[in-house]
Design a protein that fits this description.
This protein is α/β, with parallel strands linked by helices and about 200 residues long. The chain has one domain: Vaccinia Virus protein VP39 (Rossmann fold, 3-Layer(aba) Sandwich), CATH 3.40.50.150. The chain has a seven-stranded mixed sheet, with helices on both faces. Helix 6 packs parallel to helix 7. The protein starts with a helix and ends with a strand. About 5% of the residues have low confidence.
């Protein structure tokens, strides 16, 4: 199939996607909002008064959910390489999370306070080369895990998107080494053809 035809096919699937349509109708910035809402309905991660860090937050769907469910009580800090339209209740940092300067800015925004919840829906630019893409995914995931371990309060939680395949089992093992509880979450809003899943770690060992 030619690239133009593939692009058209993807666009048609996207605009006809139930969750895309619901996001547009309900005012969510992305269909990903429904994934976090479903997980939070089960695990009750977003609570008023908490400190939440959203890694890879643009366009802001997860931040929106956090703002709504925390009822304006607490702190939400989001960081992304891409610009995000401003949102009440969210401190946004535009920067590359993989670089020391952006990490330092994020840590400065925390002002020494421990984090209750780290969210990561980050994904690298996809090349189409599966092994290379998987390496990029887990490179980001390892940095996110390192951040969570160094900044979460003892009873804090870490929710991250990963993709099943090369590197998955090793990453689960790494999470189990530092969290008391590790669970897999597969929200209905994840696309049927996607290999994505979410890992939830709760309580640092």
């Amino acid at each position: 199939m030619k690239r133009q035809a593939k692009t058209h096919e993807w666009h048609q699937r996207h605009i006809n996607d139930f969750y895309v349509q619901q996001a547009n109708a309900q005012g969510w910035r992305s269909r990903a909002a429904f994934k976090l809402m479903e997980i939070d309905d089960r695990d009750h991660l977003l609570k008023p008064g908490k400190v939440v860090v959203d890694l890879g937050c643009t366009p802001g769907g997860w931040c929106q959910v956090a703002v709504s469910r925390m009822k304006g009580q607490g702190r939400i800090i989001g960081i992304d390489l891409l610009e995000m339209k401003g949102m009440n209740g969210v401190t946004f940092i535009q920067g590359d999370f993989t670089e020391d300067a952006a990490l330092a800015e994020l840590e400065a925004a925390l002002a020494g306070k421990p984090v209750n919840l780290v969210l990561s829906d980050m994904a690298p630019n996809i090349s189409g080369v599966i092994l290379s893409d998987q390496a990029r995914v887990y490179g980001l995931a390892e940095l996110a895990l390192d951040f969570a371990v160094n900044h979460l309060e003892p009873d804090g939680a870490f929710l991250i998107k990963v993709f099943q395949g090369v590197g998955f089992e090793a990453y689960v093992k790494a999470m189990r080494a530092v969290f008391k509880k590790v669970a897999t979450r597969n929200p209905d809003a994840s696309k049927d053809r996607s290999r994505e899943c979410y890992l939830l770690g709760v309580g640092l060992k």
